[in-house]
Amino acid sequence: xxxxxxxxxxxxxxxxxxxxxxxxxxxxxxxxxxxxxxxxxxxxxxxxxxxxxxxxxxxxxxxxxxxxxxxxxxxxxxxxxxxxxxxxxxxxxxxxxxxxxxxxxxxxxxxxxxxxxxxxxxxxxxxxxxxxxxxxxxxxxxxxxxxxxxxxxxxxxxxxxxxxxxxxxxxxxxxxxxxxxxxxxxxxxxxxxxxxxxxxxxxxxxxxxxxxxxxxxxxxxxxxxxxxxxxxxxxxxxxxxxxxxxxxxxxxxxxxxxxxxxxxxxxxxxxxxxxxxxxxxxxxxxxxxxxxxxxxxxxxxxxxxxxxxxxxxxxxxxxxxxxxxxxxxxxxxxxxxxxxxxxxxxxxxxxxxxxxx
Amino acid sequence: xxxxxxxxxxxxxxxxxxxxxxxxxxxxxxxxxxxxxxxxxxxxxxxxxxxxxxxxxxxxxxxxxxxxxxxxxxxxxxxxxxxxxxxxx
Lengths: 357, 89
Fold this sequence. Notes:
- The structure holds 2 protein chains of 2 kinds.
- Chain A is an alpha+beta fold.
- Chain A folds into 2 domains: 12-233; 246-355, Rieske Iron-sulfur Protein (3-layer Sandwich), CATH 2.102.10.
- Chain A has helices at 12-38, 45-73, 78-82, 84-100, 114-118, 126-132, 145-161, 165-171, 173-180, 182-196, 198-201, 205-233; strands at 246-250, 259-264, 267-274, 277-282, 296-298, 301-303, 310-311, 328-329, 331-334, 337-340, 354-355.
- Chain A is elongated.
- Chain B has one domain.
- Chain B is built from 4 helices and no strands.
- The interface between A and B is large, with 46 and 40 residues.
């Protein structure tokens, strides 16, 4: 949480996550290089390596884009989300190696990238050659697809460079999230990069089939999840009483240490049941705007399912010395019906919980 | 190759390069001396944290330069509930 920044917040689970991630990427590249070298693709080893890193990056991008919607559909995917930013940074480095290669004095592994292999033999700077060697932007067949990949790589660089929590605080979560939504633009650029480039010259159907599956999966999954979420938000809140409090349901609707989520005042509100009490807070975590109502009360604190940020239910604030605060709502209990004031209290305002029974 | 395209691309890349190098110089100084003035969460020596923010600050350096000049810290986020709470006081 936010007492002071650390470079990388590793714990045992995250280390296991990263080890599995890196081992899987390494295994994929090894298998790709072995199979492509032995099946006679007509490419030299450098060309195969460029495609190995490019395809690894693309597959990882598809996985990254799938995690968000999958967690909306099934909570069992949350562990994948917990360390997604490391996956994102790994993906960026794969894409970077695809583009510029890998040639560090401290590493024994040397890999040529697109820039160093296809654009490093003329009298122009490789980067200038990349953009200037083909300017047929009006011709779909000869389109300079490299520029699409370069544009996507710039977006991925901005995302990787701003992946630390420092950026969430300094740009604020809504702006940070909007910036990182650029991944969808970048995905479109990468798809166009592959369709207008490798697919046009590649004779093997695998690439075309893979790209088709990717497009249908990513677009379909996002549309399905978005419609489902929109349906949840469009559910009308219950009737309101003379003082404006809204009937949001019965105590029996909520499991112990869990929440019911309703939409009030233009955003979701999470009503938590814990220790014989009810408290209502904004559903939006201050960290990455994660869905607090899908988390649970752990050690007396609402715990965000995304990254474990915690808040005291009645206080709307993280336990000291942490400083995160979220808006709170007044709750009343009449019989077994829960009534919530739809007017949010300023973040961190203590609201006495409603006592059950 | 198209000479105009080459000249234009060289010019654009040079502009990006100058922006980024200026940002990199600012980012190194900012991460060492200025970051704690705009963000109280940046405490202690934390060398890897300071290193890890350099690429991003090299991109967004005008934002931090402005905050330093104005003596401002990072803003508080705005969501529907936060906005509603602000006006309901």
